[in-house]
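Recap for those who missed Tuesday's class. We walked through two folding examples back to back. For each one, the amino acid string is listed first and its predicted structure tokens come directly after. Nothing is annotated here on purpose, so try labeling regions yourself before you check the end of the notes.
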Amino acid sequence: MTIVNNNAHALRVPAIPIRDYNVVKSYYTELPYNKTISIIFPTPIKSVDLGSRDIIADKASDVENVLKVKASKVGFNETNFSVITTDGKFYSFVANYNEQPALLALNLTMNTMALEGPARVGGSREDSEEFINGLNAKDGVIQFSGIRASASEVVYNCDQVNHKRRTIRHLGVSENLMEATIRGFYVKDNVMYVKLQLKNKSNINYDIDYMRFFIVDKTIAKRTTFQETEIVPFYVHNNGIRVIPGHQKMEQVLAFQKFTIPDNKRILVQINEAGGGRALTFLMNNEDIMNSGKL
């Protein structure tokens, strides 16, 4: 009797080797239960992923680039967490419990090139992993969905637009000692950049609740509550500034995926004050968008 091995001729799929440049290495962190570890990133935080419910993390109030992390359980088992920032950088952390960490704050704003040697937060672990987050293949750079420009390019372009002089003077509104004006439209690749200024001419702080953009019919009244389609910026430069003190101003650059609108439509801009009644509303035409400057 002949025994046939059905696996004898099975095809073996060769494994793809993992190279050193494929690996995004991690910071080693030690987290207490009764204290908070603060991590300062070079750019605003876009998302945070926690490996376990035994740790908690949150962005600092009114600050876009500071993450607060701590243990939610005493003596938790080793876990991890990761952070993605708006410039497309990916940061990886390994976390262990320690109620007496050596460090309570970590500043990553100087990490523009790959670091050499161990990178540790609040610990003495000798075999901690080296963190590499430079401008090379080890970055794990992420791009915004549907946007041809990289995240770091968008951030850089927003900063360039923010330093440009005003090119538009007819778009905006001034009411209740508050002024909102569009200062310029710019386009590069498939990204449109809108520079907006808010100026507080009163003695009372203006707390921004929201800023929204809608495509509406041209015949809709200026102060209507009817909206057709909302368009949302995928990145806002200076988004962390949510309060405009009295007699001061604030400028933001909003990055949208490129769009145009029919001539029978307009863009309705709505800015609302948190806990107040100083709502600002104005309209923009397709002609304003079509005259965007080139970066």
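Example two. Treat it independently of the first, because the proteins are unrelated.
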Amino acid sequence: MKKTRENPAKKATARVPKDVGAVVNALRILRCLSGSSKPLGVAAVTRATGISASTAFGILRTLARLHYVSFIESDKTYRLGLAMAEMAAGLLGVSHAELIHPELERLALNYETLILLWRITEDNRLVLIDRAHSQTAVRVEIKLGYRMPLLAGAIGRCVAATLDVPSSELRRRFAIPRWQAPLSFDDFEKQVFDARNRGWSLDDGHLFRGLTSVAALVVDEEKRPRFGISGVSITGQQSLQALTALGQDLVALAATIGSALFPGPDIVSTGRSEAGARSASHSEVIHASDESAAPALPSNVLPTVNRMAGSGRRARKT
């Protein structure tokens, strides 16, 4: 009897784990309470989260018994309880970069590429504050503390997409980075438009010859860019499909980090992403030098990032 071959796409889809609804709803309620400046009643929680009143009431009652929320009898409202403070105690003094790092490692291993975390400074620079390497023998290396002009590379295009400036001012800022393989301003402006539409951008060997980078931005509650996350690989090492999947994963991770570190009043849930792409392994290392103004060649709610919510409200600076 001839066996029917199973569709790999269906098989991969079947392996994606399903969220436990009760857990997701409980987390939404906790995030709702943490983002409110005052205690909330069941009706207010229901409006903010979209969870039914009966479900919200049952979850709140359970959380109150376990001391994760406190019930205020006088006005029948709830706020975060002492058990939440006990859980957050272990995060005191932990920097944003330390909290984000496990997610950088996850992407570095999944895509076999260097993943970088950049801080956007008040003097309009990009500063490399953390990185995660892949396990491939051939890989890119960029030194911590490396600085770039604000509109340099793939991250620069994403930053440019957030700017509300006339084309003449954008052209002036575009001329500041030293592009090793210069592109025209018209091409740059088109790529900025693409970054604004899809949330991520690509630099294919323009900033550094021989290096391809994909990037997305972490923005705060006022949509101001705060961090950049990029994946950097040797040109040709990653397929276009893998670069696209990485870009989408960077957008999902950036959204999760943004909602955790800079929660707005109405943010009650985070994004999810599932992707996986592999490339060939090699046997050499390429280095990028550290120059401030002139760069030279050298899935579910994420469990780790969820821990950022507590520390994000304690300190806004890395």
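Answers for example two:
Residues 266-318 have pLDDT under 50 and may be disordered.
The chain has two domains: 19-90, 93-312.
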